[in-house]
Structure formats: C-alpha cells, structure tokens
Design goal:
By secondary structure, the chain is mostly helical. It contains ten helices and two strands. It is found in: Endoplasmic reticulum membrane.
Length: about 230
C-alpha cells in the first residue's frame, strides 16, 4: 500500500523531473547490481566519436557515483530544484525546459573536454540550482537547518558543501558558469536596449512536448457554442 502511494505521488511529478530523476536512480541501481560498469557510462570523446558509443553523451549526466550520502544529497537537489523550475518559471513550457537541458548539456560537454571531466550530472544539478536561484532572488533558503540566506547564495553554498564531501569544485563551477550563460541569454540580454532572445526552442520540440495553443481568432460553430441551439 505504501509503495502504491509513493508511486502515485511520483506520477504526479512533472514529466521532465520525473524522467530525469528516474533515469539517474535506475542507472545507479544498474551499477550497484553490476549490470553496468561506470566505465561504460563516463564521457570519453574518443569512444563517442571513433567507436560511436554515443550513449555516453547521455549517461555521463545520469551517474552520480555509488549509493551513499553524496548520491542522496545530489538526488535531493536534482528532484527539488528541477521540479521547482518545471512547476514555476517553466510551467506549461515543457519544450523550453527540455531545450534548457539540451543547451546546458551541450555546453557542459564542450567545456568538460577542457577539464577532462568524465561525469557531468553534478554540473547539471548546479546549473538547475543556479537558474532557479537567479529567478527567485527574494526567496530565503534554509540550508539543512544550518544556514538561512537569500536564494542567489544557494549555488555557492552547494559548492562549498560539495567540497566538504570531497568532490571537485570544478564540476560545480562548470554548472554555475553554464547556468549563468543560460540565465544571461534568456533573462538578461533580451531585456537590454537592442537585445533579443537568442535561445529559440526548435519548433519540433514545441510540437512534440507542448499543448497546442488555442487560436485567438477561432470562432466556434453555432452548435459548439453554449446556450440553446438556434434553429
């Protein structure tokens, strides 16, 4: 019964958050059960472009390490802030949200080549947190009951805590940098004199993922209008 209630709650989570969180958990479970090896998942440009192991472009964002405190810490932030973005500033804009993932993933992959970063899920988490924090500047955040501060400080607190866990801050800095690029191009530059939106979601994504918009010029047929039917 408890599992049914949990499953029901999970199915009520927005689609992108639900899909990404489930993919991360299932990938980690497969590694724990030795169905997969981290060596099959990490980003390696030679294997991607020479051996055509293109799945590494995706799996490098899905593995957060073995089960442990660091894994659950990352999953907590992924689920919470991905959901808050999807239900907040991206509400009704699933295609735009997916495009943010694609833009961030591509930029992280290119920049990750310079730093020889093999797993980028933590960077994606930092990007999600950064974008949410910049769009919610007035929100006060309670960080595990230890500190309370304004939302824009959250990515830096997350980076500091990650460092205490023994993780490289380079990954967090990459996510913050990519998050800032997205925020600037999407929220800042279009509002500048002479600015415009440079990140345009492809039409096919909108067609696939967004509900069709109602035509404001549409006039229903008489039989479709409310009230008694006029003969």
């Amino acid at each position: 019964m408890a599992w049914q209630g949990l499953a029901t709650e999970f199915l009520q989570v927005p689609a992108v958050t639900r899909t990404y969180t489930a993919a991360c958990i299932l990938t980690t479970a497969a590694v724990q059960l030795e169905l997969l090896s981290p060596f099959q998942l990490y980003f390696n440009p030679h294997l991607v472009f020479r051996k055509f192991q293109v799945w590494r472009l995706i799996t490098s964002f899905l593995f957060f390490g073995p089960l442990g405190f660091s894994f659950f810490f990352n999953m907590l932030f992924v689920f919470r802030y991905c959901r808050m973005l999807e239900e907040g500033s991206f509400r009704g804009r699933t295609a735009d949200f997916v495009f943010m993932f694609l833009f961030g993933g591509l930029l992280m992959t290119l920049l990750g080549l310079l730093g020889s970063l093999f797993f980028l899920g933590q960077a994606l988490t930092a990007m999600l947190v950064y974008v949410w924090s910049r769009r919610s500047p007035g929100v006060r955040v309670n960080f595990f009951g230890l500190l309370t501060f304004q939302a824009p400080f959250l990515p830096w607190a997350l980076m500091g805590f990650s460092m205490l866990l023994g993780n490289s801050i380079l990954v967090d800095l990459l996510g913050i940098a990519v998050g800032h690029v997205y925020y600037f191009l999407e929220d800042v530059f279009p509002n500048q004199p002479g600015g415009k939106r440079l990140l345009l979601t492809p039409s096919f994504l909108k067609l696939l993922l967004d509900a069709p918009e109602e035509d404001p010029n549409y006039r229903p047929l008489p039989e479709e209008q409310p009230g008694p039917l006029q003969q």
